[in-house]
Amino acid sequence: MQRINLNNPLKIIDLGCGPGNSTAVLKQYWPNAMIIGLDSSIQMIEAAKQSYPEGFWQVGDAQSWQADEPFDLIFSNAMLPWLPDHAKICQNWIKQVKHGGAIAIQIPVHYDLPVRQEILKVSQNPIWNERMEVARKALTYQTPEFYYDALSPFTSKIDIWETTYYQEVDGPENILEFIKGTELRLYLELLDSDENRMDFEQLLLEKYYLAYPRSVNGKVLFPFKRLFILVYR
């Protein structure tokens, strides 16, 4: 948000707002703006209403969303990989902002890191390999160059950067718990028994022990990359 160079934006939408945490931060940053949080999950929107009853919340599909009138800022945090055809979606978003407005997107980019690569390896176990193709194709990742090519014809300025955040965790078990809340959930849901789910998790944990060795103090440094895209119209 600190990198967004807008002078007093008054109309903002948080696409894929989840339980409203990022929307609340947007409101703290721009208290005078009318800010809408939109998510396709009714449960997430209900959670947002409970946590932030003063907010404006909508159930909707960010992929096909159309603004009634242009916004100053379209914000999306960690949601885009869950959608297909990123070029079409991002081009649609930039068309929904005012001239002088912006879209700001953050994307987890762990596709080349062990946290994801080891999941793919475990998913190829012959016991469950055939059923895992759905999960392997569920998320969409693209390169910074892809987004530059898709958005540069529509913008007066585009700013793209990556940051790797090193999180200190107690051990590989913490990494497993972290990813269970996101991508790993897709694989576990395809398994037909608790026993198979436990086997999958155990095989993955064994790989994480090799991929993420402990430091001298017994902790593990868990690197996680984020891609940021800031586009002005």
Strand adjacency order, main sheet: 3-2-1-4-5-7-6
Main pleated-sheet profile: 7 strands, mixed
Task: Give the SSE string.
Answer: EHEHEEHEHHHEHHHE
What's the multimeric state? single chain
Given the structure, what is the number of helices? 9
> What percent of the residues sit in helical stretches (DSSP H or I)?
25-40%
Secondary-structure content class: alpha/beta
- End-to-end Cα distance: 17 Å
Q: How large, in whole angstroms, is the Cα Rg?
A: 19 Å
Count of strand segments: 7
- Beta-strand portion reads 25-35%
Mean pLDDT value: 95
From the spread of the alpha carbons, the general shape counts as globular
Low-confidence region ranges: none
How would you sum up this structure in a few lines?
By secondary structure, this protein is α/β, with parallel strands linked by helices. Helices cover 36% and strands 26% of the residues.
